[in-house]
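Budget justification, computational time. The allocation requested in the original proposal was used primarily to generate structure tokens for proteins on the priority list. As evidence of use, we reproduce two of the resulting records. The first is shown immediately below.
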Amino acid sequence: MNNLLKKAIAECIGTFVLVFVACGVAGATGGSLVATSLAFGLTIVAMAYSVGRVSGCHINPAVSLGCLLTKRMTAKEFIVYVISQIAGGFLGAALVFGIFKMAKVSPLGDACNYAVGFAGKLTTGGIVGALITEIVLTAIFVYAILNVTDEKAGTGKIAGIVIGLTLTLVHLIGINLTGTSVNPARSIATALSAAIYNGTTDALAQVWMFIAGPLVGAAVAAVLYKAINTEKE
């Protein structure tokens, strides 16, 4: 099997698991701050030590953008990764929304909407506040990833744990502000599923913020990493 195809499948699987498990926990617990934050972090750990050895376990377009800007992947790989992540995320979101629908539970209601990365209501600062929050949180997350996955860092065996804990950290602060996206694939997936299952387009109207914010944050992280953490040739 073609190596890039293997990576695409791994990214699709990883993003599917992230959205299905973590968003499922958010729905099952009513958007519990601690439970949801841990679910996202622990899922990243699990995927990092499984699909990570195939694709690097980006499972997030913002992470892939950070890798592209630091020349860790090609433009072709970036495009394939992002398409695979969006596809996997949508499959995960559609399945978890469908299960909640069959269980006759309001499919991922308001509390869960906050937790899966789009805001039913922007609780702090409106659009500007949401964008700033997403930019900063994504920059922290991607900057940590770029550092711990650097071969010179010597953190290879524990990188997955550090990344998972960092995602938990940004969720702990972000869930009550914007819902914490830091992942455009997850937000696109849940916004589309909300439109399909709940018949509401509120999330789709807001999803641009949770695409733009994380991508800008990833670019900021890449610039900081290149300026601070790399040596001149």
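The second record produced under the same allocation is shown here.
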Amino acid sequence: MIRFDNVGVRYGMGEEVLKDLSFAIEPGSFQFLTGPSGAGKTSLLRLLFLSLKPTRGLINIFGEDTATLAARDLPALRRRIGIVFQDFRLLDHLTLYENVALPLRVRGKEEAGYRRDVIDLLKWVGLTERIDAFPSVLSGGEQQRVAVARALIDQPELLLADEPTGNLDPTLARRLLRLFIELNRNGTSVVIATHDLNLMDQYDARRLVLNEGRLQVYE
């Protein structure tokens, strides 16, 4: 599904923040991305989401060489990827329901075909009673759960999650992990960036460990 060959990233004239990354993500795989603060986890997620170009090296995603990919082809590839950002990026003028349904609306799907799925997903993340609320009245943890639901609603081929349980209590964190695992069992490749060792220890999964911009893979 994804292959990195000797990828490096630098910002401006500074030192490389990612160095010589060579690894692959297989279809239907599950992995945690971890490492100390400043190791380059967010930069790696941006590469995977096609919102950052490498300074050097080759990246192949869904069979496409990103170095030769035309800008007009990027949206179609990104629609195959679900992402949960640390800053949530919810739209304040939309309700919870509308935020979660947005990826489906953008694709032109009719509400009759997805309304039940949106409601069921909001129920799973514990927000059924807030379905008509706006993001501004939610706690940080509630906003985070909305962001997770939005990333999952279109059953992406690849899910990227940047600290998805950071604002959640342990019970909700375990519940979300079960949701990610179920999604993975249905064929979605999952990459979860986290500092939470307890969360990682709950599931025997591959670990991508970044340290000072270099990657080690533990199967």
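A brief technical remark on that second record: The chain has a mean pLDDT of 91.
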